[in-house]
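Need the bound structure for glutamine, inputs here:
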Amino acid sequence: RIAAVDGTINAFLHVAEAEALETAAAVDRSRAAGGTEAESLHPLAGVPIAVKDLIVTKGQPTTAGSKMLEGWMSPYDATVVEKIRAARMPILGKTNLDEFAMGSSTEHSAFGPTRNPWDPTRIPGGSGGGSAAAVAAFEAPLALGTDTGGSIRQPGSVTGTVGTKPTYGGVSRYGAIAMASSLDQIGPVARTVEDAALLHELIAGHDNKDSTSLPEAEYPEGRLPAFVDAASAKNVAGLRIGVIKQLQGAGYQAGVLARFQEALERLRENGAEIVEVDCPSFDYALGAYYLIMPSEASSNLARYDGVRYGTRVLPEEGPLTIERVMGATRAAGFGDEVKRRIILGTYALSAGYYDAYYGSAQKIRTLIQRDFDAAFEQADVLVSPTSPTVAFPLASKLDDPVAMYLNDVATIPANLAGIPGISVPGGLSEGLPVGVQFLAPAKQDARVYHAAGALE
Ligand code: GLN
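Answer from helper R.:
Posting the output first, comments after.
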């Protein structure tokens, strides 16, 4: 399937055919052996998976969608990759993304854009457009993504797939190339809510290698919750679902709002109680995110110095000082969007501007968390459209960064608050998928599966 369609879709940056077939054959042998060997196979054994190329893999290249890491091979596996290998899932390869996960369309990849399988003249969302498109185009039944401001959920929305951003700390970030460390989370991309839940159960859990990893005892059940059970309940009788007043209306396409209303109707028919919640600080969420995210990224990306990883470019003439090698490497290795964010971030963190920009953004972050706390007093889960628009045409927002950033308006509050969210397909508008997003309090990831499962 990859050979047949990926010439057009460009979801994969690397295909690991031999390795995947080898893993699959080994699983077949274990299954044929029967007895305890067959019985001990994980339910996902032999099910192939694609991995966003921001997550490091031993024996397969990791580029982060950047020339900076072209040709670089990680000497170790990310914790999530260790887990999918232990479950004996064949890794099909690495999927395309906006460079260092900065973007909402996958057009900022240094290796060409990914195309939306529903309409190849349109974007697949971003930054995880490769993972979402691979799943939507039936190139892979499951994929891993990362979500810092919506990069799992927004691509899910515009490709008609399911994507979950777990509670911050719920899945180990060890081996996820850092973008904005206080916001980043790895999560599942799938075709159904139950599939996403099953993969989420596999990759979740505490990890000593990630200092922000959540101890399992801190979940409400005192252990990792059963996400699959929640996803398959299909009954939301009595569940209080809060519609976020600020995440609808102006700026949202009419077709998106129409599908959203129909989804609410279906939930109501299923027994849910629909209420409206007010989150006034959300009006400032985008502004706060686009200060905090670049600030953290500017610090994280300082490691690409032309010495430690990947690309090194020497200045054409003049002395080979550290500054000049670093400058030549970064000038050639980073794309425009990455440079824009490093400049924004270093500016926001600089002495004299710190309080006005970074400090204010952190205060807004607290206000957003308080809005969520208040909203979750009135509702068990919250709901909104995942993205204000369906997939837009390639190149249509590339010259207008702010228009691109506006596509994240509904997804970023969850990252700023560290809470879980899921995007689930909610029908089509003009032949293109519309996504519905559910959000729940931190550590209550089971609730987003419960609500999303009912809509499927
Ligand atoms: N579109 C957002 C951004 O550009 C989200 C990125 C992400 O979640 N990795 O920052």
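Comments: DSSP finds 16 helices and eleven strands in the chain. The two ends are 26 Å apart (CA to CA).
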